[in-house]
# Entry
Amino acid sequence: MSQQVPVSGNARADDPSADAARDDGVHEITPDLAYRRLVLVNVVFYGPPNAGDRGWVLIDAGLPATKGRIKEAAEARFGAGARPSAIVLTHGHFDHVGVLEDVAEEWDVPVYAHRLEKPYLDGSAAYPAPDPSVGGGLMGRISPLYPTKPVDVSGRLRLLPEDGSVPPMEGWRWIHTPGHSPGHISLWREADRMLVAGDAFVTTAQESAYAVATQEPEIHGPPMYLTIDWDAGRASVQTLAKLAPERVITGHGRPLQGPEMRRALDTLARDFDVVAVPKTGRYVEHPARPEDGSAYREP
# Structure
């Protein structure tokens, strides 16, 4: 089981009393960035309050059966009937694309993702199977029940430009942070050093049902049971640590900010093999990489 990298209380970016063990509130991180926790995963909303129709962007698309809560949060923040201008995906795992097909169709919006995620978003390939042997917690043990089949938004899919820009998000750039998935990206805004890290690393012990419920802030590597290339995952965390972010929101856990967060992230980057990588596991010994096409085909 991985070790935690704890952070002190002043690393929290929001009031924990307003967010503890809840999934029913929209929480602002910066004036134009907010998130809502949906059971075990975060969705992120980019755009100022009351931005109106097409004035905002959805980052990731939650779990299955959370469409109503995503729409409710969007209307509360941006206005009645406000649709996004686009959906941007950090990656295509089931807990980040749970309602993607439905909301993309209803809102009539493009979906942006890295080119290496395309097979999992156009219906042509399934992700490698989860590894329930790693992590030691309930969430990991039940991971074989998680869907790995792709969604199909091929008609709306747009590949992110190679120059690192994010067309619907001026001032942001995407950074390729593979390991958890082949085309995983993180989003970075230099102006205020804001990082949307997806699952490149997370701020809770995602393998543990107790940690998922309590959301005690800790810096961890990517969720172990779905991470398929630990060498790439290490390089991705090191890349993000070098940015020295001021604030970070990850796919799982609370947003964090400040020097204590940076120290914890630096520790994770430095000691990744000790604190993040399982001692044994399917993908520890045999990473699954995009060039291994057969490993990615749906059975």
